[in-house]
Fold this protein.
Amino acid sequence: MGIAEVALHTMPGTFTGHSPASSLFLRTDAGGRRKRNTNLFYRKFKGTPKFPGLRSVERQCQRIDDLAKVIEAGNGTWDKDVVNKASQVLGDVSVPGQVLGGNINLNGNATKPLPQRQKVSSVEDEAWDLLRDSIVNYCGIPVGTIAANDPNDSNPANYDQVFIRDFIPSGVAFLLKGEYEIVRNFILHTLQLQSWEKTMDCHSPGQGLMPASFKVRTIPLDGDDDATEEVLDPDFGEAAIGRVAPVDSGLWWIILLRAYGKCSGDLSVQERIDVQTGIKMILKLCLTDGFDMFPTLLVTDGSCMIDRRMGIHGHPLEIQALFYSALLSAREMLTPEDGSADLIRALNNRLIALSFHIREYYWVDMQKLNEIYRYKTEEYSYDAVNKFNIYPDQVSPWLVEWIPPKGGYFIGNLQPAHMDFRFFALGNLWSIVSSLATTHQSHAILDLIESKWSDLVAEMPLKICYPALENQEWKIITGSDPKNTPWSYHNGGSWPTLLWQLTVACIKMNRPEIAAKAVEIAERRIATDKWPEYYDTKRARFIGKQSRLYQTWSIAGYLVAKQLLDKPDAARILWNDEDAEILNALSTNRKRGKKVLKKTYIV
Ligand code: GLC
């Protein structure tokens, strides 16, 4: 039995044995945080509110006031305390307003010094102004950033909302600047939205799902025509185009929560009972048994940054990399308590199975492609080489030409008889950041980016995926989506926001010069072009057809990249180190697996 199978077989027993769904996660906490029930309560006794969540919001404002008082009462000492704690955690933190210093990476090695750059460029100044202008306040405090802030856009659709995934680079930019409050508020407010009563045609999403986005609405106060109040209105996908489920939101939330603690030194947020419950609810949703044979997370199309139909249903790489990162981060933050042992066991088993599965089956390079090209098919046996019954014809002509002699990457998706060979940037970069990729694979991914620079970076970093779907494939796979035409938007468009993930990955592998080169290319035109959401054409020459301008995560992505290149050491708040236990389990089981293979019974 391979390690993947070992983990898969161990997990269900340990997990279901203690009925975790009811006992582990759904306990009411000290903070009384059970909004789904609270909402039901109000529906029953007060009738359906005009706006969902109206009642709970009054409570939230109260909570925020309390939070504000805590900060105020400290006369600014909160910031100092936080910095002191940060110093203990990270070793070298200066006053708020300055980012972490030092050129030492997590292994204690000196990171490569970069050529001295200008201290503050005007592009950077503009970006900071724009980022601050995009801040959204709720009950008088900052809670997020609006997705796009173009004053000339008369039809913003949902770009006037705070998207969870879009806020991550904003949050990181603020953290690195020493401005922690907005991130703390964002974490706590989105947590409040986590189990909101939201339905689509009478069906509610799983508890623990984080919304894709939320909006602050001002509505008339019940029973008082002259007064108004603010409410937070989340969208879990029930209003989103295509009704897609935002699987990545909760995973990003966990990643940001960890980064907040690491950067600010304020571990009190992650230690709160309601936050611990929130983490567990996300984990529960992800670790629940289903029909799936694979340790990868099974999702519908459009469940992540690519939030439209693009043929990424099943087990897309981006979700797997975020899932892995969130599992590692959650394990770091969960406070040990009676009753969480099963969860930790399930989590550990999943980590091992997931890393084995992705490293073994998603990886392609020249040699592996050649193996696939020569695959035998229809193998009914326990030790099939071609486990997923991939027909060699899937190795399409573009790939034969494209794969460089040096370098490799993780494919976009793996299903029975299907390998999606497209290169997806975010999934590959976050596999490096989370150590889902081995060190060798991580370097190989960066080698590939370097050798395919004119395809992946060209005139604006970075292609969201490569290559584009064209002709019949575009028609069938996207449903003839006019926004996702070849080399536009999600279908081979170029997204400046991806700069920050590229930068973290490059710094982790001690190759920051690759990211620096990409940032320099972006800098040539991004501000003049008004910070577009994405670029079109094969070489990213045009601002995208329907691209929003003053897109916040393009601005924040650029800022994070700049901040990190200045202080590479700070990138450690985002990456996960290779876990020694996982590594051990993998190598032990590989050895065992080999012995087993010799004796395998072939039907
Ligand atoms: C688009 C992107 C999505 C992003 C949203 C708001 O729908 O595909 O990833 O979160 O815009 O910017």
About this structure: The two ends are 16 Å apart (CA to CA). Residues 147, 159, 163, 165-166, 305, 307 surround alpha-D-glucopyranose (CB under 6 Å). The longest helix spans residues 341-362.
